[in-house]
Design a protein that fits this description.
Low-confidence stretches of chain A: 456-462
Distance between the termini of chain A: 25 Å
Shape of chain A: globular
Largest interface: A-B, 100 and 100 residues
Structural class of chain A: alpha+beta
Oligomer: homodimer
Strand content of chain A: 15-25%
Chain lengths: 462, 462
C-alpha cells in the first residue's frame, strides 16, 4: 500500500467526502431530544444507503425502544479475519438561541478546509473518514472482512447497544474493534487513549408545591426546592476545589502510575492551549500535570443545570414549587457506576429525604491496550498517516460502546480517534477539518492492511 | 349614600366592568419584559381614554426612560380636599409553556362570576373597582376632588415613580392616598395591612469561560460557575430553615408586638387554607403563628432561579461557562434596602471574589396607619361594603409606591385591597371575582364619602 496512492485517493474523494458530510450534518440527529426520532431514522437509512453505494451490505438494526444501529459489512473472499470499525452518528443538542453559534449548527459550512456544524468532529466526520479508509483498503485488495457499527445513542449513554449486540450474536463476531470517537492532545502528535473516564448521570428532583407562588405571599414559610437542592449539591461536593465529599467516592480510584504520568508530560499538553481551545478564562489550577490528572485520571461531580423557578428577563419574585438539578460524575478505573449511584442516593437521602435521585445515563470507565499486535498495528498506521509516532495517554470522556463491545464481542478494542482540541467537541461552533479527515482515511486504510498481515488475535475467528 | 343605590349601581355596571377588565387583561403589560414596551403604552392610552369616558381628565405621564404613569382627575366645584387612589396596571410575566395555566393568561375567561387571566387580581380588577367606586361617589355628589394614579412599573420595583411624582409637583398634591394592591387573609374578614414587607432583588453572576464545554474534556480542571454560585447561596442562607447567615442581616428587624400577634391570631388565618390556596404540599413549619410571623413579619432570602448550563431533555454533560442566580430578600421594618445590598455584596465578595452581585429591583418595608380619621373612615367603609369589620394585619409583599407616595406627597397612605388568597396572586391561573369587584365598588364609594365628611387631614390642602 503506497502512500502516494492513498494521498491521490483522498484528494480525488474530497468532494464526495464533503458532500456526504453535508448530508449527515444537516440531519439533526440529537439523540437526547425525543422529537428527533424521525430525523434519526432518516439518517440511519441514509447511512445504510451510503454503505451500499460504497459496495458493502448494510442493515438498520432496530431496538425494541430507542434509536437504531447501522451494521455495515464488506466481505472479502480470502479474508481470515474480521475487523469492526465503530462510530456514532447521533449528536449533542445545539441551540442557536442559547449558545453562541456563529453558523447554524445543522448547516454544514466549509471554510478554508474546515467543516463547521454539530457532529462534524463528534462523530460524523471521523465515521466518514473510516468509511473512505475502508474503500481505499478494498481498492488495494486488503484481504479482510470489514464491519461497520454506526450507533445513534452514544450521546445518551448507549442504552440499547448491549441488547442489540447480544441479540445479533454471531452476525457481529469480529477479531478486533476499532472505536473512532476520541481526540488528540495537540494537533502535532497523534494520541491514543489508554484509558477513558466513564460517567454516571443524575437528576435530583424536589417538589414542594403545585405552582410557583409570589414570595411576598409565601416566602419564609414555603420551602424553596431550588434552595434545598443547592444545599444538597454543596454537601455532595466542594465546587471551588472539585472535591467530592461523599464517603467512599474515591475508594476504587487507581491513580496514574509513574510511567503514565511521564507519558502525560510528553503528550504535548499545554495549559495555555487547553484554556484557549476550551475558551476557559479561569481554571481550578494552572499547574500542567495537575490539570492533566484532573481531566484524565480523576473522577468529578459536575452540576450541568438547574431547572425550575424563573430565569427570564428582570426578576420574578417566585418561590418555585419544583426544581431539578442535572448533574453527573466522571468516573475513572476501577469505579463502578452502580456503586456510585448507590453512594449518591444514600448520601442524598441522609441529607434531604424528600429529594428524588434518578440515574440518568451511565458508562463505566475503560482501561485500554497499549501493547500487543493490535496496539503495534495502530501505532504504525498513525505514524504512516500523520508522519509522527503516537503517544498513549488517557481521555477524559466516556465511550460506553468500548466497554460493551469488549465484553460482548470478547476481543481487543483499540481507539483511532481524529478529533483535535480546537474542534470544539460538544461545544458551539463544533468543527472538523480536511487534514484530519484525509489523514484519517490513510490511517484507517493502513491499519486495516496491518491487521490483515498479523496472526489471528485473541478473539474468536469469524 | 344608600346601600341599595350602590348595589343597584354595581349590578347595572357589571357588563361594562367585565368588558373593561377584558380589554385590560388582554393587553400583556409585562413590565419586566422589554419587548412589551408598546403594549404598555397602548394600555396606558386605553386607561386614559377609559378615565375620560367616566367623566374625568387624564394624562399619560412619560418618564425619561421606563413605562408611563396615568394620572386621572375628577374635580368637584365644592371640594375642599383631594383623595388619590393608587393602582397599577402592569403585571407579572406569565408563560403557558413553563407554567400550568389552564387558560391563556392574556385572554379573560369569565366563569361563574370568576375572572381568570394575568392581572385580574393584581391589579387590573381592583383598579377598575376603584374607578367604578369613584363613578358611584360622583353620582352621589360626594364633594371631593378624586385623583387616580395608575402605574405601569410596580412589578419591577417602581423605578420611575419617584422622579415622575417629584417632577409633577403640585399637580399631584393630595390630602390622602389609598393604595389598592393588597390582599385579605381570608374571604370572610376584610383585612387591612398595618405593615408591608419590602424587597431587595439581586442577581449573582459568575463567568469562567466563553462557551459551555464537554465535561469529559474539561471536567475536574474547569471551574463550574453553577457549582460555585450554589455554594455561595448555601453560605448566604440555610434553605431548610430559611435562616439568613449574613452577619448583621437581622439587626434592624422590629419583631411584631404582642398586640400585633393577637391581631394575627384573630385574622382568620389558617395553615390548611394557606397551603391549599398556595398549592403548597410542604412548609418549613406547620405552626400557625410561626407561619404568620414568617410570611408577614420576618425577612427572607429566596432563590428564584438559576440560569446557565443545560436543562433540556435528557442530560448534556456540559461544564457551564456562565451562571446567574436570581434571588431576593423580603425586608421588614426597619431594614433598609441599601444597607442589605451592602451586606450581601460584602459577604459575597468575601466568599467568592469573582462573583458579580447586582441589585435588581428594590422597595423598602412600610409601617402603616391603624388609628386616626383616615383609618377609621377605611374601617367603616369596609364594614359597610362587606358587612364585617376589618382586621389590621401585615402583608408579606412589597409596594414601593406606598413608601414613595407617603414621602413625596407628605400625607397619610392607607390600603384598600381586594385580593383573596385563592386569587393566585403572581401565580398561574390568577383570578378575581365579581363579589370582590362589586364589594370594592361599594367600599371605594363609601370611603370617598367618609373622607369628604372629616376635617382636613395631616396633608396639605389642595
Amino acid at each position: 500500500m503506497s502512500r502516494s496512492f492513498l494521498t491521490s485517493f483522498a484528494r480525488a474523494e474530497r468532494t464526495r467526502y464533503e458532500g456526504l458530510l453535508r448530508e449527515l450534518v444537516e440531519i439533526p440527529t440529537v439523540s437526547a431530544d425525543p422529537s428527533r426520532k424521525k430525523d434519526i431514522l432518516r439518517a440511519a437509512e441514509f447511512a445504510a444507503d451510503t454503505i451500499h453505494s460504497f459496495g458493502g451490505t448494510a442493515r438498520v438494526l432496530r431496538p425494541a425502544a430507542g434509536h437504531p444501529i447501522v451494521h455495515g459489512a464488506f466481505h472479502h473472499p480470502k479474508a481470515k479475519r474480521t475487523i469492526t470499525l465503530y462510530n456514532h452518528l447521533d449528536v449533542q443538542p445545539a441551540s442557536v438561541e442559547s449558545e453562541p453559534w456563529r453558523t447554524h449548527p445543522f448547516r454544514l459550512v466549509v471554510r478554508d478546509g474546515r467543516y463547521f456544524g454539530r457532529g462534524t468532529t463528534d462523530d460524523k466526520g471521523p465515521a466518514l473518514a473510516a468509511l473512505f479508509g475502508v474503500r481505499a483498503a478494498r481498492e488495494c485488495g486488503v484481504p479482510l472482512n470489514i464491519h461497520l457499527l454506526w450507533e445513534f445513542e452514544e450521546e445518551i449513554g448507549s442504552p440499547s447497544l448491549e441488547r442489540v449486540v447480544a441479540r445479533e450474536g454471531r452476525r457481529l463476531r469480529t477479531n478486533a474493534v476499532v472505536v473512532s470517537d476520541t481526540g488528540w492532545i495537540s494537533r502535532r502528535i497523534p494520541s491514543v487513549p489508554s484509558g477513558l473516564r466513564g460517567m454516571q448521570g443524575f437528576s435530583f428532583e424536589l417538589v414542594t408545591g403545585k405552582e410557583d407562588r409570589h414570595s411576598g405571599d409565601v416566602g419564609g414559610a414555603a420551602r424553596n426546592p431550588i434552595g434545598e437542592l443547592l444545599e444538597l449539591m454543596y454537601q455532595i461536593h466542594d465546587a471551588k476545589t472539585g472535591r467530592v465529599k461523599i464517603p467512599g467516592f474515591y475508594k476504587r480510584v487507581i491513580p496514574p502510575s509513574r510511567r503514565e504520568l511521564e507519558d502525560f508530560v510528553a503528550s504535548g499538553f499545554s495549559v495555555a492551549a487547553f484554556k484557549r481551545d476550551n475558551v476557559l478564562t479561569r481554571l481550578r489550577t494552572e499547574e500542567p500535570l495537575d490539570v492533566m490528572k484532573r481531566i484524565w485520571a480523576a473522577p468529578t461531580f459536575e452540576v450541568h443545570g438547574v431547572e425550575g423557578g424563573y430565569v427570564g428577563p428582570g426578576l420574578k419574585a417566585v418561590v418555585p414549587h419544583r426544581a431539578v438539578v442535572k448533574a453527573s460524575c466522571r468516573l475513572v478505573p476501577d469505579q463502578e457506576p452502580e456503586e456510585i449511584v448507590g453512594l449518591v442516593k444514600a448520601f442524598a437521602r441522609k441529607w434531604n429525604k424528600d429529594v428524588v435521585v434518578r440515574p440518568n445515563g451511565s458508562s463505566p470507565p475503560f482501561r485500554g491496550l497499549t501493547t500487543g499486535p493490535e496496539a503495534e498495528a495502530l501505532k504504525r498506521a498513525l505514524a504512516f498517516a500523520f508522519g509522527r509516532k503516537p503517544v498513549f495517554v488517557r481521555d477524559g470522556g466516556a465511550i460506553g460502546a468500548a466497554v460493551i463491545l469488549r465484553k460482548l464481542l470478547a476481543c481487543p478494542v483499540m481507539f483511532l480517534g481524529l478529533s483535535l482540541p480546537e474542534h470544539g467537541y460538544h461545544a458551539p461552533n463544533e468543527n472538523f477539518d480536511w487534514r484530519q479527515a484525509s489523514g484519517g482515511m490513510l490511517a484507517f486504510a493502513a491499519y486495516l492492511e496491518e491487521m490483515s498481515r498479523i496472526g489471528t488475535g485473541s478473539g474468536p475467528s469469524a
